Amino acid sequence: MKSLLFLLILFIFAYSQPILAEADKMVYEKNSIVYIGNVKITKGNELLTADKVIIYLDENRKANSAEAEGKVFYMDGKRTAKADKAFYDFKKDIVQLVGNARIEEGPNFVEADEIVYYRKEERAIAISKNKRVRSFYVEEKEKK
Questions:
Q1: Distance between CA 103 and CA 117 in Å, rounded?
Q2: Signed CA dihedral, 121, 45, 15, 30: sign only
């Protein structure tokens, strides 16, 4: 129980908004927190679901990076993302989607084997080896 309380305090201080993590199983170790089975993590209007999520901790026990695998789905209110696996570097604010990667915003989307999204810079790189990168973009009509 003390370790669970520590984790909750860690998340509250590490982020501007509290994080709620739910799973069938949680394993806390010195350098990581592993959520297994029907994982659902929410923070404000952000939602992440997957079969398994590993949060890697630095020497100060703060979240350094995360890895999600198995039916990964992310939503932040305006944007959704899907992939077989996802990697997130908290310090660099970079998300890497691997395997059947897709990002959608309204009717617009990009699909590839891998998508690397640089959140701070609002830019992405899509790469495919087995199929071509696909994207669809609808221009907004000018308001009169």
A1: 10
A2: negative
Q: Taking every pair of C-alpha atoms in the chain, what is the biggest distance, in angstroms? A: 59
Question: Is 144 inside any structural domain?
Answer: no
For residues 28 and 114, give the distance between their C-alpha atoms in angstroms, rounded to a whole number: 30
Cβ atoms of residues 3 and 28 within 8 Å: yes
Q: Interior CA angle at 18 toward 116 and 58, to 5°?
A: 60
Domain residues for 33?
2-136
CA angle 129, 131, 132 (to 5 degrees): 100
For the stretch 116-141, pLDDT in tens is 999 889 889 999 998 899 999 888 77
pTM of the model: 0.80
| Per-residue model confidence as pLDDT tens digits over 14-36 | 445 688 899 999 999 889 999 99
CATH of the domain at 52: 2.60.450.10
Beta bridge partners of 64: none
Counting DSSP H helices and E strands in the chain, the numbers are: 1, 10
Q: What is the spatial distance between Cα 102 and Cα 109, in angstroms, rounded to a whole number?
A: 7
Q: How many CB atoms lie within 10 A of CB 132?
A: 8
